[in-house]
Specification:
PurM-like_N_sf, PurM-like_C_dom, ligase, 2 domains, Phosphoribosylformylglycinamidine cyclo-ligase, 11 helices, 60s Ribosomal Protein L30, Chain: A, about 30% helix, 15 strands, phosphoribosylamine-glycine ligase activity, alpha+beta
Length: about 375
């Protein structure tokens, strides 16, 4: 005998039809990232990627990375703008891969939400697809999971993973970095996707709404905080392939800040000196610092402070590298050099040796921001 009050999956909060509708809305954007290497269509159990090109490699190495965008999703949810957060996701993932010189081949995404709103999910995935197009990588699959009771109806989180390939002889990193190499900074587009817990706390304490017009920023606070992460992958790969640039390594400036991330790609026994006076803090960073009275060391350990990626190049390649990056629309400049430790304090906020489990070289910050 049937119950007068049957429990259904939809009644439990999971709408399968809404998920199907979301897939239909995103299919064209996902397909636009597919080249001849991608087999099958959207919606399969697994994405297929033809790696026949690897047969031309002497020793192909696969590189992989996974990440999310942290609490920046709270800004997207508060503003009900969801078509840019995917760009952040791609940048956080693929730009870790290019640090070793690998070309990102394909990416998958995962979206967990309290309720599938097809248009919202499609917007998120369209942003991921747009980021993949900028990075030159294929979006070959993904998953949207509805978690009622765990997440609110308007809440979601995103994560992604990518796989790339690099010829073993062309791997970039500490083994290539040499004394007298030049450190080049590449400008960030803003906060990127790190430190939003700090930034949100500062703005909450100051009582600033996301709709507030901020003259120093030339737009609303929300527009500034939602500015997408700059994606460097294509530019970094092109630069690494230019023999004149003499690229030896890259550092993606994410959680931990500039010094800690740069130290990870230096060999033990070498020290990079970075001169703060070579660039001025973009307004959003000065704003966070001033409103929250955030100590400089904490600011430098948390935010990118205007530098989203760093290239380490041979001294003879520095001018060519800076010129190429600027011509490509990535503001870049010489910010320091690599040498042997010159002595001085090896403790304190201006000095980092190794980071995130890597017993690498050291970084010393000098001077004051311009």
């Amino acid at each position: 005998m049937s119950s007068p009050n049957p429990i259904t999956y939809a009644g439990a909060g999971v709408d399968v039809e809404a998920g199907d509708r979301a897939v239909e809305l995103m299919k064209d954007a996902v397909r636009a990232t597919h080249g001849d290497d991608v087999l099958g269509g959207v919606g399969g159990f697994a994405g297929l990627f033809d790696v026949s090109r690897l047969l031309t490699y002497t020793r192909p190495l696969l590189a992989t990375s996974t990440d999310g965008v942290g609490t920046k999703v709270a800004i997207a949810q508060a503003l009900d703008i969801h078509d840019t957060i995917g760009l952040d996701l791609v940048g956080m993932v693929v730009d870790d891969i290019v640090v070793v010189g690998a070309e990102p081949l394909f990416m998958t995404d995962y979206i967990a939400c309290g309720k599938v709103v097809p248009e919202r999910i499609a917007d998120i995935v369209r942003g991921i697809a747009a980021g993949c197009s900028l990075a030159g990588t294929a979006l070959v699959g993904g998953e949207t999971a509805e978690h009622p009771g765990l997440l609110g109806v308007d809440e979601y989180d995103v994560a992604g993973a990518a796989t790339g390939v690099v010829e073993a002889a062309h791997v970039l990193g500490p083994e290539r970095v040499q004394k007298d190499d030049v450190v080049i900074g590449m400008a960030s587009s803003g906060l990127h996707s790190n430190g939003y817990s700090l930034v949100r706390r500062v703005m909450d304490r100051a009582g600033w709404s996301l709709e507030r017009q901020v003259p120093e920023l030339g737009r609303t606070l929300g527009e500034e905080l939602l500015e997408p992460t700059r994606i460097y992958a294509a530019h970094c790969l092109a630069l690494a392939r230019d023999d004149a640039a003499q690229v030896h390594g890259y550092s993606h400036v994410t959680g931990g800040g500039l010094a800690a991330n740069l130290a990870r790609v230096l060999p033990r026994g070498l020290e990079a000196t970075v001169d703060r006076s070579t660039w001025a803090l973009p307004p959003v960073f000065s704003l966070v610092s001033g409103l929250g009275d955030v100590p400089l060391p904490d600011l430098e350990r948390t935010l990118n402070l205007g530098v989203g990626m760093v290239a380490i190049v041979g001294v003879a390649g520095a001018d060519a590298a800076v010129a190429r990056l600027n011509a490509a629309g990535v503001p870049s400049w010489v910010m320091g050099s690599v040498g042997t430790p010159a002595g001085g304090a090896t403790e304190g906020p201006d000095y980092v040796q190794g980071a995130k489990g890597v017993d690498g070289g050291s970084v010393r910050l000098v001077g004051a921001y311009a």
